[in-house]
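Re-run with default settings, no changes from the original entry. Doing this only to confirm the output is reproducible before filing.
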Amino acid sequence: MATILGIDLGSYSVKVARIEQSFRTVHLASIEEERVPEPGEGVALPLPTDRKHEISMNSEVAQAEAEPVEEPVDSLLDRQMRALLTILGRQKIRAESCAIGMSDDLTLRLVEMPLSDPKKVAQTLPFELAGQLMDDLDGHVIDQLPALASSGPGGSLWLAGCARQHDVESRLLSLSPLGLDPKVCGATALATAVLWVQSKAGSMPHKDLPLWVVDLGHRMTHVCALATHPKRAGQVLVQFARTIPRGGLQITESLSKHLGMGMLAAERLKHEHGLSDFTNPRVAKLIRDALKPLLRDLRQTLAAYTSRFGAEPKALFVTGGSAQLHGIQDLLSEELGVAVHPLLPPDGVTWLGPNTKEMPTGESMTFGEAGASRTYVSSTALVHRWPTGTAAVGLGLGAALGGPNFNFRKGELAFRTDYAMLKEKAPLLVGFAAALIVSIGMWAYASLQQLEKESERLRLQLITESTALFGEARTDGRQVSNELQAALSQDKTQGQSIPQVTALDLLEEISASAPSSNASGPANLDVIELHIRPKKTDLKATCSSAQYVDDLAANLAKISCFRKVQKGKVLTLKNTGPDGKPVEVKQFALEIETTCP
């Protein structure tokens, strides 16, 4: 069984979804989450040491040791790697593959192309995208997805993603010391799309499409629009995606600034009261004010989407840490005019099978749409971490089953497989090869036994025939064959000679030698008597003329087994012809001396 990790490198926490993939099944095994440490937290600092006794008289050495050492910069990526290392240490499972997402270092654009062939679009898209961004795209990695089947005669609409090659490479190098080599480096904004694609029905019901998935994160908010594929029934495509650089961090900073408290206290206050006017109206008002820029960007995004595709989304699903804020769903529905629901796994997905069971309502979280059949997840940790781990789950499922997302591992950064799936299937392949070898061996053994029985039967037959022929048993078939050939070449006058021709052979030669006509006309040969004996052949027949008798005798004399042809008297007789009239025929007899034994 192969283990695939979906890794969401968030700015607040790192989420890891573990996907177990066997030969025919895929299921979600766990979701792990670890808070990203603060700058300097968890970094091993040099311990103070008393080295005065080591300072020598050499002033250069003393000066070198007295110089301060520059401390490394503790970047966000370094802190994310420390959080990821903590998760991997808890799991203690080696992953055969993994997938990561990019968010803030990624540019998303809708590009209308006059082409529809994906290969030609991939060749010309960098030039079109460079014109939109007004920047040179050398040193960038570009990937695209179809956003609309056709935008005009021969045209198409594509969702393009552009990332700096340095950013992709830095993530790959950071994961390498942890023993991870991502198979997919996609976009976090598109990660949740695979949840709908891999549902039991193939997609969300058509009445619920198009829809939006809004991932409200700590610093970033991702918007992903899904719609039915116009040409492939039961499939969905990503029409639109955008990353807004706003999230829960701006709310916490606003509370900290206006209430004069630390970030941790402000964050705790945010989650305790949320947008409820009953518990703390002042906190609710500050949160609403902090959310105004994000709401403005979402309204602009909705207007741009409606203008481009001509229809508003029928539903909006929210996920992420900030989506758990009390009252956020009602606020979004009120501001955007769209029904808002929490993002839960679509009903009937197979990858939840091994972790699900039916249980009474209230004992665990309910997944699925309202009014539809419900699926209950028994794992408390899985239920608790689902709202913030959806992007990680989507990345892992995309690597295992495929889905609509980018993959910036191209060119020099292309993924080199280690044949993990081949290693997984190796026992089955070895078993099949062993069974095939055993079957071939059994077939060869059975064939050999059959040949041995046939050889024994032929040996006994040779003994019987040679005993009757030579008076003694012979077991050498080649020797018996040579003796028989020698007997055939002996003098033909010996009584024990084997006949070279048969009566039937002579009859065929006589028939072939008899002419069908001559100068006098048709032969009208009618054989009355024919006796073929070892040394003599007698023929009595009638024909149309005496000349035909001479011709027939001359032809028969040419047969190798006939040495002498003697003609008898030729008599004229009256016969009845086919038309009933009398006809004169010649009756004759031939005596032929036969030489062939």
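Residues 420-470 form the longest helix (51 residues). Residues 503-594 form a domain with the Gyrase A; domain 2 fold (CATH 3.30.1360.100).
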